[in-house]
């Protein structure tokens, strides 16, 4: 991905003492960074605020991480915004989130256009409230010819549901005679996932200290490196992203083989 050196240095000037662009090897960036944005509610509660204030603050972090990823030249940034299990939250919170998603998407469309970002959704967005779904579809359409970073937003997403859907699609194709069952392999499955055509995440970041995947991209993270920080998502900044990438670059990735070191 093309990097504008001037914008990159400007965006990462004036940082904290422990991390800077100099710690990053720009030739070994993860192609796909994925974030599990967790801790919005706890961030708000710790400040005596409503949980919805935490989600609003979380949007500011997401905007910063999108911008930072574009500046760095990351190919794909994905973010877990709403899981198939999140419908179990109180109706009031679900309504607030759906409203916030629609509003955020409208508000951020100029940024996505300016930065040449293509947006895809992971998950079944047909089941979302009409307004939210329509805004999402409009945004995807508006950004479909962009050639820069891909932003993949997981909304109404669950990995097991995604894999079951892929099986269903493959079975339907096989019963139509469009696929020979004996040829079904890992690439066939990958091609029926919401992430078809995208590289697998190489770095998965989870905030707020939880050591779980929570039904997120189970197929795609087979060889991803994990980075967990205690920082709540609304406190996560461009510098935390650099810390995560620095940690990723210090790992010895063997993919089941032997160390190259
Ligand atoms: C987790 O915090 C966060 C969420 C459920 C939603 C996060 C969504 C955004 C920041 C915006 C996404 C924007 C678009 C356009 C899709 P939590 O409520 O689980 O926090 P807790 O674990 O402290 O309760």
- Would you report the number of β strands? 6
Classify the secondary structure makeup into a structural class.
Answer: alpha/beta
The rounded Rg comes to 19 Å
| Nearest-integer average pLDDT | 96
Which stretches are low in confidence, meaning pLDDT under 50 for 5 or more residues running? none
Give the second-level CATH assignment, the architecture of the domain at 5-9 and 31-158 and 201-249: 3-Layer(aba) Sandwich
Which class of the domain at 5-9 and 31-158 and 201-249 in CATH terms?
Answer: Alpha Beta
Order the strands across the largest sheet as they lie in space: 3-4-2-1-5-6
What is the share of helical residues? 40-55%
Number of helices: 8
Tell me about the biggest sheet? 6 strands, parallel
> Which molecules are bound besides the chains?
farnesyl diphosphate
Q: What percent of residues are in strands? A: 5-15%
| Run of helices and strands | HEHHEHEHEHHEEH
Question: Which key features would you list for this structure?
Answer:
261 residues, alpha/beta, Undecaprenyl pyrophosphate synthetase, six-stranded parallel sheet, 8 helices, 6 strands, binds farnesyl diphosphate
Question: What's the gist of this structure?
Answer:
The chain has 261 residues and is α/β, with parallel strands linked by helices. The chain is built from eight helices and six strands.
């Amino acid at each position: 991905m093309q990097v504008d050196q001037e914008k990159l240095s400007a965006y990462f000037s004036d940082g904290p003492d422990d991390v800077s662009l100099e710690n990053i090897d720009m030739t070994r960036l993860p192609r796909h960074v994925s974030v599990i944005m967790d801790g919005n509610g706890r961030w708000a509660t710790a400040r005596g605020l409503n949980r919805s204030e935490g989600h609003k603050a979380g949007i500011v972090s997401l905007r910063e991480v999108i911008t930072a990823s574009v500046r760095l030249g990351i190919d794909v940034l994905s973010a877990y915004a709403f899981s198939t299990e999140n419908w179990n939250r109180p109706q009031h919170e679900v309504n607030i989130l759906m409203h916030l998603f629609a509003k955020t998407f409208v508000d951020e469309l100029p940024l996505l256009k300016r930065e040449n970002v293509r947006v895809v959704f992971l998950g079944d967005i047909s089941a979302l409230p009409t307004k939210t779904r329509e805004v999402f579809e409009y945004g995807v359409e508006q950004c479909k010819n962009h050639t820069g970073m891909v932003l993949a937003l997981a909304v109404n997403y669950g990995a097991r549901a995604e894999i079951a859907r892929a099986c269903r699609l493959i079975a339907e194709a096989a019963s139509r005679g469009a696929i020979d069952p004996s040829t079904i392999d890992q690439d066939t499955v990958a091609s029926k996932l919401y992430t078809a055509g995208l590289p697998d995440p190489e770095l998965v970041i989870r905030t707020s200290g939880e050591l779980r995947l929570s039904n997120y991209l189970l197929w795609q993270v087979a060889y991803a490196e994990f980075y967990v920080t205690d920082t709540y998502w609304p406190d996560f900044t461009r510098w935390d992203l650099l810390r995560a990438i620095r940690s990723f670059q210090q790992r010895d990735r063997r993919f089941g083989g032997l160390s190259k070191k």
